[in-house]
Automatic annotation (TrEMBL), chain A:
This is ABC transporter ATP-binding protein. The keyword Cell membrane applies. The keyword Transport applies. It is a peripheral membrane protein.
From TrEMBL, chain B:
GO terms for molecular function: transmembrane transporter activity. This is ABC transporter permease. GO terms for cellular component: plasma membrane. The keyword S-adenosyl-L-methionine does not apply. It is a multi-pass membrane protein. It comes from Pseudaminobacter soli. It is found in: Cell membrane. It comes from the Bacteria. Keywords: Cell membrane, Membrane, Transmembrane, Transmembrane helix. The chain crosses the membrane at residues 12-37, 57-80, 119-137, 144-165, 204-224, 254-274, 280-299, 306-324, 330-349. Its main location: membrane.
From TrEMBL, chain C:
Coiled coil: none annotated. PANTHER family: GUANOSINE ABC TRANSPORTER PERMEASE PROTEIN NUPQ, SUGAR ABC TRANSPORTER INTEGRAL MEMBRANE PROTEIN-RELATED. It comes from Pseudaminobacter soli (ex Zhang et al. 2022). This is ABC transporter permease. One of its GO terms (cellular component) is plasma membrane.
Length: 510, 379, 323
């Protein structure tokens, strides 16, 4: 057996009452690509942050190249040849590529010579690994894929032998992801060790040599990738067989309740995020929007919900137009039967500092049943909140508890209860199960199907392809701000994957 | 977990920690007293006696507290909207203009109980108007409200100097102030309440604007925690994105929040102008707008905390005056230091002692602390 | 020639009143570029002025005064750092607190120590920074234009004036040509990037606020032992806030900061020079309007009517490691 590049022995880490890592043991072989897979919140990122010196373990030992080493700061990690590419890039946006690369590794007190040294070093790395990027480009003007490349260059410039990548493909298109994988293979061939953290089984199977599975803070198994299967890994990840298909009857679509035509949305920098999108959602069906994160789904949802202004286009809600390009009031849309479960429940869907009951009326706080003149009807609000807690099994069952103290799944249930119990005509749902524990996922999926069966028009946006496929009656695929295809619920993963990569569109253009 | 701290009982959170912060502020102030060669314990004794020693002293203490309740509430309302209104000083100063104009116009025509409501409206309206411009610039143009309100304090000061040495000064007078008001613009004193309890008040300036301040404290509580508008303001203050999602207009919240804040700050002008001096002088606000920051921080932006915090500062101002008399080395500027220390320890360093308090609580009763963050059924 | 003399006097006065603004403005630049907002420039400058004048009065040496001014201002800067870096407190609140602590304690201590109503004893001789006559200034005095500029405007200031103006290119060089400057700019934009690059955010920001303390100390010392001959209470009179306005006006850049301070200094000097004078067309301009002009101009700038002032992105936000 080859030499171990990294050994983690008995690592423990707690954040307050939450035990993020318990007794973790891990051995990564030199010159391999080692995958670490687990659901959101399984403790993968925490473990890697400990390895990178970003957090300190409460107990346990780290060995690099067989030697026990105390890694207290990222500097210690860098010194023993560990580099990290973070999920959220650690780049200074208004700096140039070269300034970002040398930051922290300048070598000398004056910049002039360190910059010229870095320039030639970057050229070498470009030759060796095919990592091309203009050293004088400003980061905020580069596409995401290139920004990630700068992160890799930063690590290599510091002489990293062991490269940790935390969910590197979350923001990439399949084509960009493929390119990244080619780079990683090339790094491996050059003798580097790569640790890839992901929650995507497909990536593990495609690129890793070895895979370790984490679940709820513990390391449950390590397998040779060639000797395992997607099914086995999935089961290890969630602890029991995943219910990939939600039980549901045939849809009975009726009238069009939500109709979007030629919608165009720009973001704050003026980039077109939603490009001439048209779609209809009927009563009694779930329309799923699939796509790699960042292809305009979020902006589409926000524009329909009235929390973001559109530049052009029309939206008809139950046959009546919505002024999406002018002054939209999300409150008015709610009155007209539009409910919205937003993607970001921490900052948008909930006020974490509020008591549970206060969040249970957010957005509906001007409904007469919660008011007495200009005053809040405290008794009615709390009675209503307690009803919802019982009906949606929200735990702990306290309408006075601060919302921040609920788990992710229960927070999401607070939002769902609020939006679903208002008996909407149209329900917009963004990433309904992001950061939600497995038990709650099933509950949420069943509720969404129940809404459909109750004749609601449901528009679902999710980056989890499995979720889209198991819930949707029709699937629309978004790529680069456009809807590039529509498929039935039985479309294969591969077919959807090609659409999400924009492949078909490119061929049509040629 | 967004909150890195374990939970403390409510009384510790809202009572114990502020008290600890306050004690530390006073300990540091005691060191300053030592530095100037006086005995801090004696000084504290004189201070307390100066504030509560006689009916007159108590009346003065409450007179000062009146101003601080208004300005403390002003800062607190803005805090609830997520805004830091540092401009209370300027808003109160300019609002004096509204009070003075009403008083100069009606003091010979109307009785005080008709002039007073007009003056309240004028004070609130002018204070609100002065807060409106920074609010508008924040809401519509994204100008940082802290910076603009600071700048507006200076602009207000310049404008008032210009007016008081010019247009508002009676002909032939040298002092930069308006003419004295007639009886129709002089507020009744409240000293008789204390006299009824057998204390001697003499001419202490405690007046009915104290009652107005208490009424406003109650109104602010009602507004923030019991009305739809207050709910919307708190939503916006905690999370502007959630407010947008909930259909709450950010522009409306910033502007309404600052108008209320400026209006409350403006009402402070009633107390010295109509209640005590019976004319408007240069710099009649005398820092009360800034004291409001300390009061709001100490009172945790809750009226039930603001009123006692304002009384505490009343004690410092009144007791400090006596102290300056007894200990010549300590002038009333001692209060400015204490104010700064309170802002530092109750505001900027409010969490400094929290971990220690939590450790103590954990060792006393593990059950209150050991509650793990509730997890969903999967965990 | 009367006009030329008047102009020369006006420019000379502009330089004198601009210097404390410039020092305080550059001081604020270091802190704010590192992501720590500082509205406590006023307080630190005031405390520096008091400490400087007191030490100079007691020791008889302007240099001891300068050292003490820097020491005390740095101490206050460290308090700000302790609150806003170590304890992640609100930076605005901390700045407000420091202004009050300085305002109160300078008066209390001044009265207790010197018993002159908050003043420090008048300084003279080596206890002050006197004007320096540059070499050849007297010889060139009679050369038209150049002689006047050299001998009247450039020569004849105290050493701290030259220090202040030299700080401008020096600050530019530090910010854009050194490792420290690169890191300083980075930490004000994205502290997480600095942290993951193995650099201590805390130590970097502490160094920035220490520099802020040093420069506000020099600014205070200039006020009390160079421009004036002693400390009088509240002698900064809002200069710290005008410096803050100038910093915003200059969009947090050193060279524009100098021009902003000169502009605001010029307004101040002109308001004194032309007080009560009637101008053609507009008539008398109230001195109060001119005094308020720096603030009015800054608000107009902040409102985006003349370009946009975008502060460092991480400014005002305490750094907390994301989980």
């Amino acid at each position: 057996m080859a030499e171990a590049a990294i050994q983690l022995i008995g690592i423990n880490k707690s954040f307050g009452p939450v035990r993020a890592n318990r007794d973790i043991n891990l051995e990564v072989e030199r010159g391999t690509i080692h995958g670490i897979i687990g659901e959101n919140g399984a403790g993968k990122s925490t473990l890697m942050s400990i390895l990178y010196g970003f957090y300190q373990a409460d107990s346990g030992e780290v060995r690099v190249g067989g030697k026990p080493i105390a890694i207290n700061t990222p500097n210690d990690a860098i010194a023993v040849g560990i580099g990290m590419v973070h999920q959220h890039f650690m780049l200074v946006e208004n700096f140039t590529v070269i300034e970002n690369v040398i930051l922290g590794a300048e070598g000398e007190a004056l910049l002039k010579s360190s910059i010229s040294k870095a320039r030639s070093e970057l050229q070498r790395l470009e030759r060796e690994y095919g990592l091309e990027v203009d050293p004088d480009a400003v980061i905020e003007e580069l596409p995401v894929g290139l920004q990630q490349r700068v992160e890799i260059l930063k690590a290599l410039y510091r002489g990293a032998d062991i490269l940790i990548l935390d969910e590197p493909t979350g923001v990439l298109t399949p084509a960009e992801a493929d390119h990244l994988f080619r780079i990683l293979k090339m790094l491996k061939d050059q003798g580097k060790t790569v640790v890839l953290i992901t929650h995507k089984l497909r990536e593990i199977m495609a690129i890793t040599d070895t895979v370790s599975v984490m679940r709820q803070g513990t390391m449950v198994a390590t397998r040779k990738t060639s000797e395992t299967t997607v099914e086995e890994l999935a089961e290890l990840m969630v602890g029991r067989r995943v219910l990939l298909r939600v039980e549901k009857g045939e849809p009975r679509p009726a009238d069009v309740k939500l109709s979007v035509s030629n919608l165009t949305v720009r973001d704050s920098r003026g980039v077109v995020m939603v490009d001439d999108v048209s779609l209809d959602v009927h009563a009694g069906e779930i329309v799923g929007i699939a796509g790699v994160a960042g292809n305009g789904q979020s902006e589409l949802l926000e524009a329909i919900a009235g929390t973001r202004n559109a530049e052009a286009g029309t939206v008809m809600l139950d046959g009546r137009p919505v002024d999406v390009t002018g002054h939209v009031d999300p409150g008015e849309l709610r009155d007209r039967g539009l409910a919205h479960v937003p993607e970001d429940r921490h900052h948008v869907g909930l006020v974490l500092a509020f008591e549970e009951a206060e969040n249970s009326i957010l957005g509906y706080h001007d409904k007469p049943q919660y008011l007495r003149g200009p005053f809040l009807n405290i008794e009615a609000i709390h009675a209503d909140a307690r009803d919802k807690i019982a009906k949606y099994d929200i735990r702990p069952a306290s309408d006075r508890l601060k919302t921040a103290n609920f788990s992710g799944g229960n927070q999401q249930k607070i939002v769902l209860a609020r939006e679903m119990e208002q008996d909407p005509t149209v329900l917009l749902v963004g990433q309904p199960t992001r950061g939600v524990d497995v038990g709650a996922i099933e509950f949420i999926h069943k509720r969404l199907i129940a809404m459909r069966d109750a004749g609601k028009a449901v528009l679902l946006v999710s980056v989890e392809l499995d979720e889209i496929r198991s819930l949707s009656d029709r699937i629309l695929v978004m790529f680069a701000g456009r809807i590039v295809g529509e498929r039935g619920p039985d479309a294969s993963e591969g077919e959807l994957g090609l659409l999400m990569a924009g492949v078909e569109q490119r061929e049509a253009a040629e | 977990m967004s909150a890195p701290f374990a939970r403390l009982p409510r009384w510790a959170d809202y009572g114990l920690i502020p008290v600890i912060n306050l004690i530390v502020a006073f300990l540091v102030a005691g060191i300053v007293v030592l530095l100037v060669g006086e005995n801090p314990i004696d000084a504290a004794g004189i201070l307390v006696k100066g504030a509560f020693g006689s009916g007159q002293n108590i009346a003065y203490t409450l007179y000062y507290a009146t101003s601080f309740i208004f300005t403390g509430l002003a800062v607190a309302v803005a805090f609830h909207c997520g805004l830091f209104n540092i401009g209370g000083e300027g808003q109160a100063y300019i609002a004096g203009l509204g009070v003075a104009v009403v008083c100069l116009t009606f003091d010979g025509v109307l009785p005080w109980w008709l002039t007073f409501p007009l003056a309240i409206a004028a004070a609130a309206a002018v204070g609100a108007a002065w807060a409106f411009i920074p609010a508008y610039l924040q809401a519509r143009r994204g100008s940082h409200i802290v910076i603009t309100t600071i700048m507006f304090n200076f602009i207000a000061a310049s404008a008032m100097v210009y007016l008081l040495v010019g247009p508002l000064k009676p002909a032939g007078s040298m002092a930069p102030q308006t003419r004295d008001f007639l009886a129709g613009a002089q507020l009744p004193k409240l000293g008789w309440v204390l006299e009824a309890m057998g204390m001697s008040v003499r001419s202490a300036p405690l007046n009915i604007s104290f009652l107005l301040a208490l009424l406003m404290a109650w109104a602010v509580w009602l507004l923030i925690w019991r009305t739809k508008l207050g709910y919307e303001m708190r939503t916006f203050g905690f999370s502007p994105k959630a407010a947008r999602y909930a259909g709450i207009s950010d522009v409306r919240m910033i502007i309404i929040g600052m108008l209320i804040s400026g209006g409350l700050a403006g009402m402070m002008a009633l107390n010295p102008i109509m209640g005590d001096q019976h004319h408007m002088t240069l710099d009649f606000v005398a820092g009360a707008g800034f004291v409001g920051i300390a009061v709001a921080l100490m009172g945790r932006s809750h009226p039930a905390g603001i009123v006692p915090a304002a009384v505490l500062f009343g004690v410092l101002y009144q007791g400090g005056a006596e102290l300056a008399f007894e200990m010549p080395n300590i002038s009333r500027d001692m209060i400015v230091i204490i104010q700064g220390l309170v802002i530092l320890f109750a505001g900027a360093l409010e969490h400094m002692f929290r971990p220690y308090v939590q450790t103590v609580f954990a060792s006393l009763s593990p059950r209150t602390m050991g509650v793990p963050a509730p997890k969903g059924e999967g965990a | 020639m009367a006009f030329v003399d008047a102009l020369a006097q006006l420019i000379d006065a502009t330089i004198r009143v601009s210097v404390p603004l410039l020092l305080a403005c550059l001081a604020g630049l270091y802190s704010e570029r590192s992501g720590i907002f500082d509205i406590g420039l006023e307080g630190k400058m005031l405390a520096g002025a008091f400490a400087g004048a007191s030490a100079a009065a007691v020791s008889g040496s302007a240099w001891v005064g300068l050292g003490m001014a820097i020491l005390i201002a740095v101490c206050l800067a460290l308090v700000h750092g302790f609150a806003s870096i170590t304890h992640r407190g609100n930076q605005i609140v901390s700045g407000v607190a420091i202004n009050f602590i300085a305002a109160g304690s300078t008066i209390i201590l001044g009265q207790a120590w010197f018993s002159q109503g908050g003043r420090t004893p008048p300084l003279s001789g080596p206890a002050r920074f006197e004007a320096i006559t540059l070499p050849g200034a007297d010889a060139l005095r009679d050369v038209p234009v150049i002689g006047l500029i050299y001998s009247e405007l450039i020569s004849g200031h105290s050493i701290l004036v030259y220090v202040a103006f030299l700080m401008v290119p020096l600050t530019w060089w530090v910010l854009f040509r050194t490792r420290f400057g690169l890191r300083l700019r980075a930490v004000g934009e994205n502290p997480a990037a600095v942290d993951t690059a193995g650099i201590s955010v805390t130590w970097l920001r502490y160094r920035a606020v220490i520099l802020t303390g040093v420069l506000t100390g020099v600014a205070g010392a200039y006020l009390s032992i160079a421009q004036n001959a002693g400390f009088v209470k509240d002698m900064t009179a809002g200069k710290g806030f005008i410096a803050l306005a100038a910093l915003i006006f200059a969009k947090w850049k050193p060279v524009p900061a100098m021009f902003a301070c000169l502009l605001f200094g010029f307004l101040d000097a002109a308001s004194i020079r032309f007080q009560g004078m009637a101008w053609p067309v507009i008539g008398k301009v109230p001195v109060q309007l001119v005094n308020a002009l720096p603030f009015i101009l800054t608000i107009i700038l902040l409102a985006g009517f003349i370009g946009k002032a975008i502060p460092p992105r991480a400014g005002g936000v305490p750094y907390v490691k994301e989980r």
